């Protein structure tokens, strides 16, 4: 089911392809927890991060090591030094000859697509500016499938829906599963009309709300994202909005038993630490699931390129 | 204006290409897309705001002694979707067709997204996929941003 050479955008994934990644991730989960696996022994994965990242970078490194492979990496400092003089195309051609696959994070949108045009080996997009971050979406879907259900799903996407790249690709992928989506954001941070139109074109109508109160009791999954301070010219306006979207223990009165709360992390104060101890808090597990999901992608792309 | 008055303005060409039914005001953009600028040695006639039965007013471009290729002229469909191409040999129209938008537009328009990698000095040409011809909806191959309006503003 997986004929891809690169992983660049969720737009290119069919539901069957997503399912095949999630199935493989599930079978690899024991190895993500430390079981011995040599599937990619002798292979090298190059990590090219032109922008800082902790989770994504370490989780790709872990995934590769858990599969018995090795990594080499280019940090943000070296990345920016290269970016000054050399074209990305040249960097990709050079490093593509050292490794068996490339993971790239770059501030410009479409950079992973460009990399795929010059790379002799598979390219995985680990975030291109405000563009795509498909491995995050796949790990989100994996979390929902494992801890809730992708069938008849009712989900609320909360926070910055205008600039948050994770919610755009997640909404797009959820549309493939016919999910019932409610968008909860401040009026100034609503999901762009072009993305809503795209979803409508896929037969998914989304509801929109500006407040969490009633919505939270009516969903299976609450997907919370960070509202960034720098999006607001007025600090008072920011603190007012941020406070109204903060999830505390009191927000959980009357919610569904099986409600799961997800967050791509890092969180600042969108979710109070007291919520961490409740059965609803899934964000740390979600972050761990990035490992088996990335293992699945690496295995699919690199074994096929043998 | 009668046909005769029109001929007094610009005489029919003997050999070359006539691009007719260009929306009024777009003739110069058509030349831009075709890459015809001050360096050209061909004789070019540009008629703007000519009366037209079909659309009230239109522009016409005539390029003498050069038969433009279909893939070249199809690019102008972005701003002149109803334009017709007449290939003239010995004062006769030997070929006539309406421009058709290609599925992929390479190196003609820049992506409107300033953060797109195609707007940097990478060794690539801009690439826009045609998602819909009427109304025109294009999407950048790189950043996937859609372009739906003011298309002429993005001509390279």
Automatic annotation (TrEMBL), chain A:
Report what the protein is called: Aspartate carbamoyltransferase
Where, by residue number, does L-aspartate bind?
84, 165, 226
Gene symbol here is pyrB
Record's keyword terms, sorted? Pyrimidine biosynthesis, Transferase
Sites where the protein binds carbamoyl phosphate:
55-56, 105, 133, 136, 265-266
TM stretches of this protein: none
Starting at the broadest rank, the lineage of the source organism is:
Archaea, Methanobacteriati, Methanobacteriota, Stenosarchaea group, Methanomicrobia
| Pathway field | Pyrimidine metabolism; UMP biosynthesis via de novo pathway; (S)-dihydroorotate from bicarbonate: step 2/3
Which EC class is the enzyme in? transferase
The answer on whether this UniProt entry bears the keyword Phosphoprotein reads no
UniProtKB/TrEMBL annotation, chain B:
Q: Which domain of life is it from?
A: Archaea
> What keywords tag this UniProt record?
Metal-binding, Pyrimidine biosynthesis, Transferase, Zinc
Q: One cellular component GO annotation, for this chain's record?
A: aspartate carbamoyltransferase complex
A GO BP entry: 'de novo' pyrimidine nucleobase biosynthetic process
Needed cofactors, names only, are: Zn(2+)
Q: Which residues are listed for Zn(2+) binding in this entry? A: 111, 116, 140, 143
Q: How does it assemble?
A: Contains catalytic and regulatory chains.
Full protein name: Aspartate carbamoyltransferase regulatory chain
């Amino acid at each position: 089911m997986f004929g891809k050479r690169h992983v660049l955008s969720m737009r290119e994934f069919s539901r069957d392809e997503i399912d095949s990644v999630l199935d493989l991730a599930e079978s690899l989960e024991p190895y993500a927890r430390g079981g011995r696996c040599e599937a990619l022994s002798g292979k090298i994965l190059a990590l090219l991060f032109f922008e800082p990242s902790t989770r994504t970078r370490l989780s790709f490194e872990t995934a590769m090591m858990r599969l018995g492979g090795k990594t080499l990496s280019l940090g943000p400092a070296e990345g920016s030094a290269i970016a000054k003089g050399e074209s990305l195309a040249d960097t990709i051609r050079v490093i593509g000859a050292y490794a068996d696959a490339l993971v790239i994070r770059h501030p410009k949108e479409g950079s992973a697509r460009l990399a795929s045009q010059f790379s002799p080996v598979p390219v995985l997009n680990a975030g291109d500016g405000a563009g795509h971050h498909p491995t995050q979406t796949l790990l989100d879907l994996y979390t929902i499938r494992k801890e809730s259900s992708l069938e008849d799903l009712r989900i609320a996407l909360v926070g910055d829906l205008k600039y948050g790249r994770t919610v755009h690709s997640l909404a797009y992928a959820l549309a493939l599963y016919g999910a019932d989506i409610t968008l909860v954001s401040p009026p100034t941070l609503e999901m762009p009309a072009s993305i809503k139109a795209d979803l409508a074109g896929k037969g998914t109508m989304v509801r929109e709300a500006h407040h969490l109160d009633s919505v939270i009791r009516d969903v299976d999954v609450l997907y919370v994202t960070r509202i960034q301070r720098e999006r607001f010219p007025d600090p008072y306006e920011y603190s007012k909005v941020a406070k109204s979207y903060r999830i505390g223990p009191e927000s959980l009165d009357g919610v569904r038993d099986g409600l799961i709360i997800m967050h791509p992390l890092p969180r600042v104060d969108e979710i109070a630490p007291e919520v961490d101890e409740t059965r609803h808090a899934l964000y740390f597990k979600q972050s761990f699931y990035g490992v088996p999901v990335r293992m699945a992608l690496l295995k699919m792309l690199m074994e096929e390129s043998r | 204006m009668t046909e005769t008055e029109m001929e007094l303005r610009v005489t029919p060409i003997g050999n070359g290409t006539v691009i007719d039914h260009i929306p009024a005001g777009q003739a110069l953009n058509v030349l831009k897309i075709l890459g015809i600028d001050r360096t050209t040695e061909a004789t070019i006639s540009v008629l703007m705001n000519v009366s037209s039965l079909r659309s009230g007013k239109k522009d016409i471009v005539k390029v003498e002694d050069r038969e433009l290729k279909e893939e070249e002229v199809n690019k102008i469909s972005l701003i002149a979707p109803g334009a017709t191409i007449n290939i003239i040999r010995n004062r006769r129209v030997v070929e006539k067709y309406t421009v058709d938008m290609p599925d992929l537009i390479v190196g003609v328009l820049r992506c409107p997204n300033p953060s797109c990698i195609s707007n940097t000095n990478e060794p690539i040409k801009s690439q826009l996929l045609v998602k819909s011809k009427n109304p025109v909806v294009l999407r950048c191959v790189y950043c996937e941003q859609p372009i739906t309006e003011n298309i002429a503003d993005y001509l390279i």
